[in-house]
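User: Good morning. I'm curious how flavin-adenine dinucleotide would be positioned relative to this chain. Could you predict the structure with it bound?
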Amino acid sequence: LDVAIVGAGFSGLGMAIRLAREGRSFVILEKAQAVGGTWRDNRYPGAACDVPSPLYSFSFEPNPGWSRMFSPQAEILEYLERCVEKYGLAPHLRLGTEVTRAVFSSSDATWRVEVAGGEPVVARHLVLGLGPLSRPLVPEIAGLARFKGRVFHSARWPGSASLAGERVAVIGTGASAAQLVPPVAEVAARLHLFQRTPSWILPKNDRPMTAREKALFRRYPLTQRALRAFTYWTLEALGTGFTVHPVLARWVERVCRKHIAAQISDEKLRDAVTPRYRAGCKRVLLSNDFYPALARENVELVTAGIREITEDAVVGLDGIARPVDTIILATGFRATDLLTPLEILGRSGVDLNDRWRQGIEAYLGTTVSGFPNLYLLLGPNTILAHSSVVFMLEAQIDHVVGCLREAQRRRASSVEVDEVALRRWNEKLHRRLSRAVWASGCSSWYLDENGRNPTLWPGPTFEFWLRTRRFPSESYRFS
Ligand SMILES: Cc1cc2nc3c(=O)[nH]c(=O)nc-3n(C[C@H](O)[C@H](O)[C@H](O)COP(=O)(O)OP(=O)(O)OC[C@H]3O[C@@H](n4cnc5c(N)ncnc54)[C@H](O)[C@@H]3O)c2cc1C
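Assistant: Good morning! Here's the predicted structure, ligand included:
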């Protein structure tokens, strides 16, 4: 095989579509029994994208049928499934195939990809589309294991979970909680929301797409492209506040404060949901129904912290035991832990996990020296706080194809980024990151345990795109 792809989310499928067009042989190894990644896993009520759908989709596959500006999970999943069908990816898919280890063989420049309970796959190139937000973070809370009721992470929502009439604890107030709390609060008898740090929340400019708009998009696809471009540049302009100028962050704070004032009348609750850090330091959320949900009679916002969990209750640091039937962990993902438990052994048997212990890094977020013919999609410093990661992903896919084509042109069997090019890239990146709002003193999932930011891209996204326009062959070694 030319290429083995791991993961069948936006990344893996996007890569596969491109390789099919390039006429390459490839396989997609996916550990789950279905495609979709994030959008297969996050089925909680209210799950939707928080980047407008015209932009949160592949540039080459616009969908005139989006039902809303911010489409719900089921529609995004359907969109990805349609891509599999339209681009004939099914014969390349191996579902239920978990990759456990991949070893590079220097003698024949191939990757031997080991899978749980099956024959290894051998391919010249290996592309990892493991998903930056695919490994749920389960917090270590004293007593969690002895709770007798139901406990689940928001990304592992049980199909049968009816919470009607139940007493529910939701732990966490990040992006998933902001989406799931309103619908759960509507059916639960009681909802206790445990907040460690509040998020800045902007109004969500969501609305149904009208029948006229959909017809227009179908008839004149250029109109949907125009909406995509408008969305892109609007978000890009807003994003500069986080990356270039903090003045915009202050403006965001003002809008958020007004949003709180308009939706919550209780002074104490207003105060409890108002963050004390600069907007943008943690992810800014979008919601129109989160604050009204907190103001409901059956909802309690607990800011005291959690002391322990008993067999039937969550006990706060305020000493109050709140009896619950179900605990929902809306505690996010291990975003800075990109590979675990996967083992990737490069040239000379070096483990990528070990290599990254000093700091996660990849050239253009994609390639790592010492690991020839290996590519990471949505790898280090490619996630965005303000726009669609699919844009970044497509630029990365172009770069991977650049590597493959250049290797072929030179009749090289291996392509590896130069150590010095990678160092330079990373030093510049982290200089910029140290001045950005994410380094302004809050703790967030963007940062690792040393306070380093291995997740976000620190500039305008078109800058990343521009850097992948031309293949930088001077930064690579071919052999
Ligand atoms: C609730 C939620 C909402 C989001 N909303 C947005 C949004 O609005 N805009 C935005 O830009 N981003 C959003 N994101 C980020 C989102 O993760 C990305 O946009 C995108 O879906 C990532 O695609 P991916 O293919 O890289 O990863 P994923 O979709 O996570 O897919 C990774 C795939 O790899 C598989 N896999 C992992 N390890 C292995 C292994 N060892 N062997 C085989 N298969 C493996 C997984 O099973 C999974 O199917 C959101 C994330 C979440 C969780």
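The CA atoms of residues 329 and 443 lie 19 Å apart. The mean pLDDT is 94.
Let me know if you'd like a different ligand tried.
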